[in-house]
Write a structure and sequence with these properties.
With 173 residues, the protein is an alpha+beta fold. The protein has 3 helices and 11 strands; from the N terminus they run ββααββββββαβββ. A 7-stranded mixed β-sheet has the order 3-4-7-8-2-1-11. Strands 5-6 form a two-stranded antiparallel sheet.
Amino acid sequence: MNIFELKIWDDERKLCTFYTVQYDGDDTSETDKFILHLENSEHDDALGELLTYILEVLGDIHGAQPCFFNRYEHEVVGLPHKGELAIKEIKYHLPHFPLRLYALRVNDHIVILFGGGVKDGPTNQSSSLHLQWVEACSMAKKIWDELKSDGIKIDEKNRKLTDADGNDSITIY
């Protein structure tokens, strides 16, 4: 059984706290592995665009509104969103975006980021993303189970997650 920890990835945004997952014994989170794999590659510009989308659009401008999480892929959502979104005077449209980063929207202010990669096939089952998608779905299911059973608590006021005892360190078995 894979043991992993929920860790804060970025909590300095105005509207949203981002978490990531890290397997027990790993030195690097799944989100950071995604970034490190794509930095200085042919997808470096797309990676920058995706990180700006996550940190600025979701983190600072709009929060984790449901409309940004519309690429449902079983237990997780693929970022960025699909289709064109118009919110107030701003339009967000990223057609044929080459990357996917899997996420779990907990609420408007808390998002858990998993791994991802280059979208090089028509579905997750036929692309190089298959393993990352399967892992993200498995972890997301365990996280939802913990949320439902109160093994993980949502601290709405501070935009954070804690274990049942109120500790910031959350290990999932």
